[in-house]
Design a protein that fits this description.
Layout lengths: L6 H22 L6 H8 L13 H26 L4 H18 L1 H9 L10 H12 L2 H8 L4 H23 L7 H13 L2
Helix pairs in contact: 1-2, 1-3, 1-5, 3-4, 3-5, 3-6, 4-5, 4-8, 4-9, 7-8, 8-9
């Protein structure tokens, strides 16, 4: 007779499943990974993942939610605890952005390169995406506080984010050498700080 799994057992297994799936999704592409392959990598029966998730899309959403929540938490904590001027606090958040991307390559790629239909909804995934995007708005908020019109400030925010994301992605792909993303941030900081 099998034992009844506790809430902690279930949570632990879901976390392990998401850890394995995250790597597989990032390395092969989510569309190229089956529930059966995830089960095999975990060493469980092919039906076991279905006890926790309805399908691969649910697993991908769970992996991305975890990533967006960790990402947002790190940026929020860094920005809140940074000392100095608004510009120095925004730069600290920028360094945290880069550190997260470079230190969590699989997660970062899935968060920003694998969109899902719920990204813009009021679902748990949509709320995690919105929270992460809100952490990226501190730069635009600072420009608005300094008197820049909102539309222009948001356009600058998008330009800065796109540049930073591009630098992180290129460094992850080894197209740019190590340290390039931080150098780009420093250049952006010198340019935007004036």
């Amino acid at each position: 007779m099998s034992r009844i799994l506790s809430h902690e057992d279930l949570t632990r297994f879901q976390s392990q499943l998401c850890d394995v799936a995250e790597v597989m999704f990032a390395e092969r592409g989510a569309e190229n990974v089956s529930m059966r392959q995830i089960a095999a990598a975990l060493g469980v029966s092919p039906m076991t993942p279905y006890r926790y998730f309805a399908n691969r899309e649910e697993i991908l959403a769970a992996v991305r939610i975890r990533g967006f929540e960790r990402f947002a938490g790190e940026l929020e904590q860094t920005y809140a605890s940074a000392e100095g001027t608004q510009h120095e606090r925004v730069m600290a958040a920028g360094r945290a952005y880069i550190a997260f991307g470079l230190g969590n390559a699989h997660t970062y790629r899935l968060m920003f390169e694998q969109g899902q239909s719920d990204d813009e909804s009021d679902s748990p995934l949509g709320r995690a995406v919105a929270r992460a995007r809100a952490t990226l708005s501190v730069y635009g908020d600072s420009l608005i506080a300094r008197g820049m019109p909102q539309a222009e400030a948001r356009a600058m925010e998008t330009l800065i984010w796109s540049t930073l994301h591009g630098a992180v992605s290129l460094e992850l792909a080894a197209t740019l050498p190590p340290g390039s993303a931080y150098a780009v941030l420093d250049m952006l900081g010198r340019t935007a700080g004036h």
